[in-house]
Amino acid sequence: MSALVLTLYAITLAGMIGFAVHRLKVLWMYARHARKPAAPAQWKGPQPRVCVQCPLYNESLMIEGLLNSVTALRWPKELLEIQILDDSNDDTPAIITRWLEKNPSLAGCVKHIRRPHRGGYKAGALAYGMTLTDAEFCAVFDADFRPASDFLEKTMPYFSDPKVGVVQARWEFSNRRASLLTRFQGIFLDAHFVVEQAARFGSGLFFNFNGTAGVWRRISLEDAGSWSADTVTEDLDASYRAQRRGWKFIYLSEYTVLSELPEKLTAFKTQQYRWTKGGIQVARKQLGEIFASDLPSRVKREAFFHLTTGFVHPLLVTFAILFVPYLYFAEQVEMTGIWFVLNPLSVLLVGGTTVILYITSQYFRDRQWTDGLLWLVSSPLLLAFGLAMSVTCCVAVIEGMFTMGGEFVRTPKGGREASVGGVMKKLRSRMLFAVVTTVEVLLGLVMLFGAIYFARHHETDIAITLFIKSAGFLGIAAMSIPDLFPRQRTAAAA
């Protein structure tokens, strides 16, 4: 048994080290290339027609803010149309109608579009909207995004280069300081938007349109095959198809669009589940064609790591399962040979590169060391939170490996008033999150008992490590349990 546990643990560590080495490479690319901002551009010739597409589903808490923002965009009114692609089945359509009636001066370029069915989810709505416009460019905004009035003035000039297919702005979060949960989310997402996206763009590698806060040249999207609903991350799928066709993508790391982070843990889990599942689906769909293409080897390598990054989550879950047994058997067995390499490498690369990535993103987000140093101090808790979140993403990887497409489950937004009841209405979703929460509880208890065991044997450092990791699993489970029973909680409150 000890040999089996130690062997599996060594394999898991080796896999995690592989992903950590790639993380180190991304940091190196960022340091070398990403500090060069996209070259300023000036539009040449007559201004083009732009269609602003706003796909939404049951966004009663967010829709008025979205309408206020997109109707304030500065662009010649005769060259601007705004599509509200509304698939809602709640009171959102009525709210939109009232807003349009109250703001006739702003409603002239707004089209409230209702499809007869929600086929294809977000991808289907965007594709349907494109059949109703002849605009050369399409900007996309999800319901919780609030573009500044100069958004088109800042992004459209880059399309003066006819090879540019997409211009993507960086996401920023208006409620990142609302709670500890949103602070953690902000750090996780900053690692992608501040560091990874900028590093890939600056290095001339493929990166993805993020589904919102960006503009597409219509012909580039059509050339790539348009929107497809055969994955749940239609943005990532279309991005790779377009770049494989030779279209250039521009990332504006210094220009941001405000959005909102989900303030409930189940909403965050829903978002991460969809992104992880969709990434694996796109990998299955496109990696074979990417490897068979004549793209440069470095582009192929980065595409592989980018699209398969979700596989780190099964490794993290395996690590969590084996960690306490490993510590127990490691006391009983003389650790020689490979362990003198694996153990220090895992600490240095897996933990160290993750913390450096987070600190780097926090500093270069607003050029202040304060937040970066704050999270350096609290990094053990942050890493424990990330480890616990891996259970949700591990399930997403498994589903992404064996299914294509699937329901596009919206992430509930709207601050603390947002309800996750819609997510939990379906038995499948409730069962899924119940299983995930159960696993989180079990892993948390195993680590808690491990902490007690090692504390009694005077292994204080190990006990503290296990206790922190246990707090991550049990804390996430405790925050998730109320969302599994939204009706009972509402009734109790009443």
From TrEMBL:
Membrane-crossing segments per the record: 6-26, 303-326, 338-360, 372-398, 431-455, 462-481
Keyword terms, alphabetized: Cell wall biogenesis/degradation, Glycosyltransferase, Golgi apparatus, Membrane, Transferase, Transmembrane, Transmembrane helix
Gene Ontology biological process terms from the UniProt entry: cell wall organization
Presence of keyword Transmembrane helix: yes
Principal subcellular localisation of the protein: Golgi
Subcellular location as annotated: Golgi apparatus membrane
Pfam family name, one: Glyco_trans_2_3
Gene Ontology molecular functions: glycosyltransferase activity
Domain Glycosyltransferase 2-like, chain residue ranges per copy: 140-325
Topology class, membrane: Multi-pass membrane protein
Protein name as catalogued: Glycosyl transferase family 2
